[in-house]
Records
---
Amino acid sequence: MTLMTSDLSDAIGFGPLPKDWYTVRAVEIQDETSNKTQAPMLALTLMVETGEYAKKRVFPPYRVMLGGVTEKGEKQRTDRVCELINATNVEWKCNGCGASGVRKFVKNDQQKYLCPDCMQVTKFSYDTDHFRDKVFRALLSQEKGFNSEEMVNSVARVAPLS
């Protein structure tokens, strides 16, 4: 066995990032399925783009439910995917009126997301690959990891750069 000497002066821990807004890039995306409900979801590995934590990856990946049902059999909320589409300017198509392109969902008085063209709560289509390499802002918080006492980051909100 070789005796080694290491310098701790530049060792950086792997703890979660402080709670704050960060400019992030979706460096990896993966289509996943919920183990409990088989609902489709998207897992985005985020990397901080600027500032003190530039190049640091956010752990765990940001998981967004894309549809399906909850464990109680209720429809999954898709407001987070609408928020992500608005933040990243991903192209989508309204399955109600047929309008497509890069545009923002709008909210009504009940905070429901609507197609900006037909102003209806509707189904919509998009390509999850288009989230790759998108840069946006993410509000990170901290919580205990799944089945762990270790603190990890979670994405509380996402927003466009401007």
---
Amino acid sequence: MSDISAFPTLYKILYSSGPTAPFIAGETITAGQLVGFGATGTTTETVYAMDATSGEYAIGVACNSATTGEPVTVALPGAIAEVVNADDTTEIDQGDWLEQNDNAVKGTVSAINLTAAGATVTNHWTIGRALVDITGGSHNKALLCMGEITVGNSA
């Protein structure tokens, strides 16, 4: 398992007429990145590229690139959007639940491991489900649907 080293250029982001909304970029955002609210609130509708920073949760996928302060349209839950696999080698299977990844390349996804392990219960903030296989180091479609998934322990 190894992280991708750069976010790819995506030419098509939105595959449905699902909901979108306008926001303001809080940093440079690339079309196709997972975006969400920062760990500390702001007085504007500002979004940031996600990287699993504590307290940050994705709300959707950026439909266009933007620099700090520029408008960015975000595909919201219910939309079908292109997402980028954070891992160079590991495939995400069709139907897998997806979450934001902690890759240094912000705005990527990984599959949620639903196998109970150890003595600890884990919670995951899902951003959607893969509609097709997403090969390692690649991108493909996901149905955006946000919510929390709890994986029980095996003890």
---
Amino acid sequence: MPNTFDIRFARSAGFAVILVLGFGALMLPANGAPAAGSTAVVPIASAAAKKQLTFFEAEAAKLRAEFAHVRNSQTPEPIVALEQQWWRLTERIYTSPEYDDPAIRVLLHAELAVSRSWRMALSAYAQGVRTKDKKVIASALAEVEFAEMLAARVRQYVR
């Protein structure tokens, strides 16, 4: 079963060095190699991965839409409730037996990273609303942007 690997590219003395994280390096002639410092993802070709990604994206989209509704709340309670929904999604991902397949384990970790970032953002946002601290709220919104960047990366793991 194909797997997904994070691959880093570097250049050294006329060779392109391809680092497959956790597996070592491969030296190739530099002509036509990817730019130094770039990153690539080799996607998983798996029906189970597609199913899990589809489910995750649907649930995450609902939660993101909910954030759009509670974002301007004057009280932290709706934000805390949304954080709890992200915790439920995290638990569902973590306990799903389909992720027991080592071929899609990296998808599990990627989805958990997105969920963790959203939970961190919502926790900070609720704290900022509670204390009326605009710096904390701005920091939470930066974490939301990071979570969305991670979510875009998750899509690259499945084909």
---
Amino acid sequence: MKKPTPDYEDKINEILSQCPPGRWRDAIEYVLIYLPEDVFSNLFEDKNLKVILEFTDEVSGGAMKLRQPEFERGPYRLIIKLNKDLDKRFDFRALAGVFVHELAHFFKIMEDHSIKEEDANFLAAEWGFSDDIETMLDRIHAPKK
């Protein structure tokens, strides 16, 4: 794994501090380190943005941009919901695919208000995560045992 620059290391550690130990944490770290630099800087140099990870039983994944109600402009949060039990069923690459897919949703919503799944997958693949997206899709569409 490549070493993050000192500027980004604190930002990555802030996100990782929200993760339980294990595959989810490893997959999220991998995605954050290998995001293209322009994507990473767009996400983490915005002083008004707070990234929040929520590990839940309810969904496989989801991303929401919420603005603080008291501000028309100003602080907002990107909440990424991830199913805490996926790490028992998905391998590292599939988990990375889920996380980068949810990040891509955020960028697509900001860019052109698209919430289509295939748009998020395409953008994540453009960022260099095509193998992870493919693994995620294979796992999602695999027959249940």
